[in-house]
Amino acid sequence: MDNQEPERQPSAPVGNDGQPAQVPNPPNDTPSGWKFSADEEPSGYQEKSPATKDPISVSWSASEFVEHKKSPSWYAVLVIVAIVLAAIVLVLTHDKISTGVVILAAILFGIYAGRQPRTLKYQLDEGGLTIADKFYPYDILKSFAVIDEGQATGILLIPLKRFMPQIPIYCSRDEEEKIIGVLSSRLPMEEHSDTIDNFMRRIRF
Asked: Has this prediction a pTM greater than 0.85?
């Protein structure tokens, strides 16, 4: 039986001092404290959600109507017209009650024309329009129209119900584009021509 030489094991490197030398670990390209693989996100990474816009909301303050200063001659014309109408009614009907109603209506018309407008707070948001403490949802509105009021812009909200009164709002020229933009995203805009409204503007009511 031949004597076989035992297999030699690789010897560890020896340093100059005769002690086993320490072999450095192979380099690791991955930075310590941060790991990333195709199946997991890196530590501290958060996927960004799509940018979302803030809810549409516009707030402003304005008069509840455009005030037209009434001169004494305006009231004088009103008195003359009221007397003429009352005389015509009396001649045609011989009814003093009807004549009195005409005179009373003229007095109330003059009082109402002389009242001062209040300053109201308006707010338009995704749900509808708020005027002071009253809320009007878009569901009850059909469309809106823009009216030139000279120094201000008038916007008339037209309801779906035929006998529901129209809702006027006012704003400055600077706020007009922004407010109309919000309304246009919810309601169609249409041309508006009303005989009574045109008459009231002509007499500067």
From this structure: no
